[in-house]
Write a structure and sequence with these properties.
The chain is of the alpha/beta class. The longest helix is centred in the first third of the chain and has 31 residues.
């Protein structure tokens, strides 16, 4: 039995805690905030309630595997509802496109070009799922597994960007824009992100988009409960100040209140840049990991509005995306010349769930626009957050969703707020981006160079998004092994 300390109670940390506790280890989870969940937060006020992180669950089998491995099945604990349509898109030229919630429906509505692209994406998924997404990142050995055959290499096309791959199949500008959006799932630029990200729309459309009844925040709460059932001690309001190192391996953590907690294994669910930048001592033997992080491009962040609205919006989907006329200008403003985007893509999540509203004649909208990190843009500059919130509402109005006279109240959250709430450096949602052919191999590995130290969560391998974060916990549990 190992003494395990998990730093951070985001979904990845909680999933690792549940698996390791089920494997017989003595597990303590330390969360800096007052609640578990990390970026899967929940805000409630005057009967309006909001998930403040992801709005969809994809690849539900990953979560079923987690619950099956640690106790009662997922469906005994949470109610997952398949969304149909999965997403409703609105384009600047007035075109509207509702993407069905089933693969057959997607192929029918999006047509033969998209179907041909999905066939290629399915092949990329076949080649990469096991050797990459479900296995530890081991540098050249990982590349060797991916390159077992020249046919597989041609399928994955590691030299091509997501946009370049899409151009081989898609002539419709709306479909090209729709594909570009999937790069933002990892906070990346489709002009630079690898073609392998074609697996993201494949997974979403082949396995469905799902909602957790009562809000997605119930997912980390359920995983925390499962960890406790297996014997883990989950402590909130317990910030960690440092990871302790002795004799070339971890030996515990130092707490912000001055206390210490000994450990044989430390699993870090904090942002990898924070771990390597400030939680480890300067002389820790992690020079190469720090260099890889320094060479990677940080992911983008997000600017959020929580809108408590009176009245109902006719024919509003659970998830609506409103595109700008010039999508490339958005990516330039995120990565090339960082600035608040004047004409951003706007994402609206508006679940039709009584748990999110005070009465039948009201709505609670989570509104997100991509935004550059805090640092390149000073999101704490006086007046910037409120003035940009007004700008986003004006963009919504120009695109046909004018709710300015229906707002009961609003709450604004900037990348700087995200950094303070989660410890994510600059408010980068996914740690490092997928920009560049080597980006996946610059992402921190689950097994650090320091003995006994492991990483889970969206800033480590295999990446961001709820399924990948949960897979990172499965990988780490396998690396640590049973008691």
């Amino acid at each position: 039995m190992a003494r395990v300390v998990v730093v951070g109670a985001g979904l990845g940390g909680l999933a690792a805690a549940a698996r390791l506790a089920a494997g017989g280890h003595r597990v303590t989870v330390l969360e800096q905030g007052p609640e578990v969940g990390g970026k899967l937060g929940w805000v409630s006020r005057d009967g309006h309630a909001f998930d403040t992180g992801p709005s969809l669950v994809t690849l539900p089998q990953v979560f079923r595997d987690l619950f099956d491995a640690t106790g009662d099945p997922l469906d005994d604990v949470l109610q997952l509802e398949r969304l149909d349509p999965a997403v409703a898109y609105r384009f600047a030229d007035g075109t509207r496109l509702a993407v069905p919630g089933t693969l057959d429906g997607v192929r029918e509505v999006l047509g033969p070009e998209w179907s041909a692209f999905l066939d290629r994406a399915a092949e990329i998924w076949r080649v990469t799922e096991q050797p990459f997404l479900r296995s530890p990142l081991r540098g050249a050995r990982t590349l060797a597994r991916l390159a077992r055959s020249s046919a597989d290499v041609r399928t994955v096309a590691p030299w091509a960007s997501l946009r370049k791959l899409g151009a081989q199949y898609l002539t419709d500008p709306h479909l090209r824009m729709l594909l570009d959006r999937y790069a933002t799932y990892s906070g990346s630029d489709p002009r630079l992100a690898p073609a392998a990200l074609a697996t993201v729309p494949w997974v979403e459309q082949a396995y469905g988009s799902w909602y957790v009844r009562g809000g997605l925040h119930r997912l980390p709460l359920a995983v925390a409960d499962r960890a406790r059932e297996r014997g883990a001690d989950v402590r909130t309001s317990s910030p960690v100040a440092e990871v302790l190192v002795e004799g070339g391996r971890v030996c515990g953590v130092g707490l912000a209140d001055g206390g210490r907690l000994a450990a044989d294994v430390v699993v870090c669910n904090a942002d990898a840049a924070a771990l390597y930048g400030s939680l480890l001592p300067p002389g820790a033997p992690v020079r190469r990991a720090r260099a890889s992080l320094a060479a990677a491009t940080p992911s983008s962040s997000g600017f959020v509005l929580l809108l408590a609205l009176s009245g109902r919006t006719p024919d509003l989907a659970h998830h609506t995306v409103l595109f700008p006329a010039d999508y490339d200008a958005e990516f330039d403003g995120l990565f090339t010349d960082p600035r608040p985007l004047p004409d951003p893509t706007v994402y609206v999540s508006a679940p039709d769930d009584p748990a999110t509203r005070p009465d039948a004649d009201s709505e609670s909208w989570f509104v997100l626009v991509n935004a550059p990190r805090h640092g390149p843009v000073d999101w704490d500059a006086p007046g910037l957050a409120d003035s940009y919130a007004d700008d986003v509402l004006a963009v919504l109005a120009r695109r046909g969703l004018d709710v300015r006279d229906r707002v009961r109240w609003r709450e604004v959250r900037t990348p700087a707020d995200l950094e303070r709430a989660t410890g994510s450096v600059g408010g980068s949602i996914y740690g490092t981006s997928s920009n560049g052919a080597s980006a996946a191999f610059l992402r921190p590995a689950n097994a650090s160079p320091l003995r006994g130290l492991y990483l889970v969560g969206g800033s480590s391998h295999p990446g961001g998004g709820l399924p990948l974060v949960t897979l990172s916990a499965e990988i780490v549990a396998g690396l640590v092994g049973p008691a």
